[in-house]
TrEMBL record:
Residues 26-97, 738-777 are annotated as: Disordered. Transmembrane segments: none annotated. The keyword S-adenosyl-L-methionine does not apply. The lineage of its organism: Eukaryota, Fungi, Dikarya, Ascomycota, Pezizomycotina. InterPro entries: PPR_rpt, TPR-like_helical_dom_sf. Belongs to the CCM1 family. Residues 65-97, 738-761 have a biased composition (Basic and acidic residues). This is Pentatricopeptide repeat protein. PROSITE patterns: PPR. PPR repeats lie at residues 173-207. Binds to mitochondrial small subunit 15S rRNA. The keyword Repeat applies. Keywords: Repeat.
Amino acid sequence: MSFQIPGSPLSRVLRSGLVRQRFAATGAQAGQLRSRLSAQRSYSNANGASEETPTDNDPEPSGEVSERPARFTRDGVNRGRKQRGDKPVVDTEKRKEEERALMAIAAGSNAADGEINDEIRGASFNRRTINMELKWLEDPRDLADRVARILRSGDPAMAAALVRQAQKEGRRCDVAWNHLLSYCMQRGFPQVAFKFYNDMKKRGRMPTSVTYTLMLKGLADAPKSTANVKMAESIYKSIKNSEVEPSIIHTNAMLAVCDRHNDMESLWRIAGDLPEEGPQAPDMRTYTIILGALQYASRHDIEKLSPHETDKIVERKDQMVMEGKRIWADVLYRWTKDQLQIDNHVVNAMASLLLEGARERDYYDVLALYHQTMGIPIFAKQPAETSKCSRFTMFRLAFLRRSQELVSQPAEDVPFVDENNQPLREEPELEEDMEVEGEEEVENFDMIFDSVVPKTEGLSYLQPGSKELTFIEDVCHRLPQGFAAGYSYWDHLTIESENRFEPDAIAYAQYLRLLRGGRASKRAVQVLQNQALPSGNANEKLFHLAMACCRRDRNNASVLLHANELLDIMHKALVLPDPRVLESYLELVQALSQAPHILLNLRGLPKEERSKINDLKVLGKRLQADLHLAAITALRLQVLQLHEALQSGKPGRSSRWGALKNGSGNISGSLAVKVMARFRTVIDETLKAEYTPFVPQDEHKRLQSDSKLLRTYSDKETVKKFGTLSVHPTIEQKNAFRERQLDIVDEPSERKGRKADKADEPQEPTSSDNVKQEPET
């Protein structure tokens, strides 16, 4: 190990100067409603499985924190932190009435005999009904299952009466109470759940370990409110005074509440009280939550800054990265001392935090992190040390500044000017920085991500997967000259390595974004043909990204051939062609037709009669006509499929039932009509007199027939008809698609056989095999 850290428990980390400063800053904001963070986690914060496995009689928690939705995206679009507790409210009055009714049920009666309150007495049950039910529910498991079924049927009053009567008779009904609490949390009423929780304790039933965990996890998913944090903290503190032994599971659930509600003050206070050893010592889930909280607290602070305040934004990001490295030092120390077993979730949480950094070195550290924990080689060059922020950060801030200027344009600004005709502006008063007591300790984390596994006995590498590959490709997309490294990482992890794996659709999409940036249309075709198609991951989004690679690579002489190959692959992979891909193909053709210097060397066009043409203008018309004919030929099959679906596929409005009834392959009717009309425009352009000498007579007649067939899609009534409809494939098209899928299944075995026959033959290297070459041109 390259660095020495004396005992570095989590409490030592929290005592550092930067964290104390952060604690003071967050403490001033306590008690205020904090806005939900700006970006959702997309494929970044990997959360572990549930740490506490209930018994057979225990209810499933209302929402597992470990399975919460991803919070940010890789496209840089702010979409807000999403939480399952914040469900869209359709009818506010109805929700209030439901909450009032549940609160009345939870209030019950204060009478010693447990008499049912008049407000909750309903026609669905009475005292005799409850007694008859309990007569057949001697087993606690049967009682819990019956309560769960009643709650699913929408009768919480009967369920509450049943549980209370069982409690009155002295039966074991812990799990039944948990079902009742879980139901209230699922409905989004934590106050009602807390009311039932207190009622349960008043009736003599003390909470179990699962009850505490269920309440805390439910409050983590509850709508954002400082009251919910206080409620969770009171429940968490009550564990120490109960018969339940506190564990790190309860602490993690409490930290998740603070994280979800952006209460950093409470998070640091609770994490700082954790012991170094014992059942309450920090585990991997603890570190994962803290790393995620650091990241989202930074985003929350940056939201308050203007995009023009670049220095402050970069400073806040640097502080976040430093705090994250301090946490990682503790993780690394405990891992090397065999006090803790790391997992992919905490590694991905650290990688996600580094990706939020402002410097290229932070991005490179992601690659070093995966090399340290998973043994993945580093193919990228280490960026030079610089005080400037990365180009990616500058582009992001510039985009935000432009967006802000477009949204808030001043009506009129006539400034005063000085003698040099310079505007006079009143300089804003800068607030004096708060002085931090004591000198801040200087820490050096330059070697924090050095390799430790070969030097330490008993340690082994983690196994990478699609999530890690997605992070790596994102890093290579951000690094300067990182395209070749991204190609090498993809080939190593999916083809060459002994521990290679099959990427998922998200990893394919991220790799295609990298290829789009590198203008590598040939590689885009190869990855779809050789990997995505046989694995069944080829979907509409991947073809859309691959065609975008071709559009950016339009200076490549083979780009038309690559685009045509994509259309052929899409025909095999999809029931109906994606109209967006066809429209993107037509845009590529339009861009090529306006670039004569590209048409002269474009492969895929006939070249036999070009040498006989001496007039450049005539040659240009000939090249454009050949391009149009080649595009029409490539698109004709796809367009006929759309035409058949539009005319015979029984279009209908988009709905979940329609998707289930008609299966996959549905496309937007408006997009389909749009691309049909645009395809007809290309045909009509080719039928003009200036191109007639270059179009064969039989092809000319066929084009006229095609134009007549597609004329209906230029009609206003047709456009209006399909404007809000979804187009479904016909039964014949579905059957034909199944046959194409069977052919795809047979292709890999034939390909393997051909490779085995040629294994001993010498292979000449091709340009596509050299993954470290410059982007294709």
